[in-house]
Amino acid sequence: QVQLVESGGGSVQTGGSLRLSCSASVSTSSCMGWFRQAPGKEREGVAVIQTVDGRTLYGDSVRGRFTISIDKAKNTLHLEMSSLKVEDTATYYCATAPVCHGLGTVGFRRWGQGTQVTVSS
After folding, report:
1. Please, are residues 117 and 14 in contact by the beta-carbon 8 Å criterion?
2. What is the structure's pLDDT at 27?
3. What single string gives the DSSP state of each residue in 54-121?
4. Interior CA angle at 102 toward 6 and 1, to 5°?
5. Which of 2, 4, 8, 52 is the most buried (most CB within 10 A)?
6. What pLDDT does 1 receive?
7. Residue 69: its pLDDT value, please?
């Protein structure tokens, strides 16, 4: 089932910025995260956030450049991406899980359809 909807993807040059959004029921999701997958590569965790306390985890490759956040009033998950690199090119997915354990995909039950991010040098 596709329960979530991502938006905000697009094409930018190296160093540019993008803001991804994901419509979701934040109040009923204990853990929410962003993942990405490039052609021929495994899906990897980008960032996760616990809705109860706002605690976050980031992948080493994006820490300091990306920021995950929740807007409870709008039931929306966001991912602010800055200083984009060519290696950030991938399809980005938002997902939810009952508990945050880390950046792995295991435990995430609901997934969005994905939004494409392309970074060119």
Report:
1. no
2. 75
3. --EEE-TTTBTTEEEEEETTTTEEEEEE-S--GGG-EEEEEEEESS---SSSTT--EEE--EEEEEE-
4. 40
5. 4
6. 45
7. 97
